[in-house]
Design brief:
The protein is of the alpha/beta class. It has helices at about 15-25, 35-55, 65-70, 95-105, 120-125, 160-170, 190-205, 210-220, 230-235, 235-250, 260-265, and strands at about 5-10, 30, 70-75, 85, 110-115, 135-140, 150-155, 175-180.
């Protein structure tokens, strides 16, 4: 399948990261969001990220060249002539279904639609589209420009051709596909990660250890760049809570029930870096307070 233009719907952390890596790979990109402030913030974030990568010699084209491939829109106009549309709106099925119905009513017959959902079954989301055989999951990881893995998820109606296309597309943007051949809530990596994270949260809740010591241990003993609490603050606690809740409601497996401490932090508005407080506290410039 010949892909020339990619449309990303949703310009938050994941959406702007996906737009960036697609533009870096040479695709024309339309970044759509109903919020102009979000779009403006996304463009600044992408340009800053590209500038840092350029300083390290990590991109082959100039910052201006990559940026010139990205167009923005505060409506769904960018969807109209896209070959691939990647939905990256908030992780709630009601929000995603609304966006997917709108996208499905506008795209061309041959266009492929993908969701960046981290936990909602692809078959469930496909029901909101008019052509579920052209729908699949493309689950990127945060931060998108740096993380190499992308889960390619086959829903019950996803055609074999579209599923294989997903793997090819991921490779075309310099990432490595992890092929998820049976649809399941949370897919592969998040199901593993969720249980690890929630056990870490419970250990803090029980007073066994602090977030600092757990993060340090995970970095030093397991070789990870970031510990579970640092990652949680980067991703957003409300995003994680939504993903865990979606998986629990689908599976009804008590292992995936979000710990009380996570729910309380979200209710209190302690969402991570974006609010200046999560598991840690942050300065206005995003650096962590000592």
């Amino acid at each position: 399948m010949d892909i020339k233009k990619v449309c990303v719907v949703g310009s938050g952390t994941m959406g702007n990261g996906i737009a960036q890596v697609c533009a870096q790979a040479g695709f024309l990109v339309s970044l759509c969001d109903i919020s102009k402030p979000m779009i403006d913030k996304a463009i600044k974030t992408i340009k800053l990220s590209l500038s840092k990568m350029a300083e390290k010699g990590a991109i082959k084209d100039s910052v201006d060249t990559v940026m010139s491939r990205i167009k923005t829109s505060n409506d769904y106009n960018g969807v109209v002539d896209a070959d691939l549309v990647i939905e990256a709106v908030f992780e709630k099925i009601e929000v995603k279904n609304k966006a997917l119905k709108e996208i499905s009513s506008i795209v061309t017959e041959k266009a492929i639609i993908a969701s960046n959902t981290s936990a909602i079954p692809i078959s469930q989301l496909a029901a909101a589209t008019s052509r579920p055989e052209n729908f699949l999951g493309l689950h990127f990881f945060n931060p998108v420009p740096l993380m190499m893995a992308v889960e390619v998820v086959k829903g019950i109606s996803t055609s074999d051709e579209v599923f294989e296309f997903g793997g090819d597309f991921v490779r075309s943007i310099g990432k490595e596909p992890v092929m998820v051949r049976r649809d399941i809530a949370g897919f592969i990596l998040n199901r593993i990660n969720m249980l690890t994270n929630m056990e870490a949260y419970r250990l803090v809740e029980q007073g066994v250890a602090t977030p600092e010591d757990i993060d340090k241990g995970v970095r030093l003993a397991f070789g990870r760049r970031m510990g579970p609490f640092e990652t949680s603050d980067l991703v957003g606690l409300e995003v994680q809570l939504a993903a865990y809740t979606n998986t629990y409601e689908e599976e009804r497996d008590i292992r995936f029930y979000p710990p009380s401490i996570l729910r309380q932090k979200v209710y209190a508005g302690h969402l991570g870096r974006k609010t200046g407080k999560g598991w840690y506290e942050y300065n206005p410039d995003g650096t962590r307070k000592k």
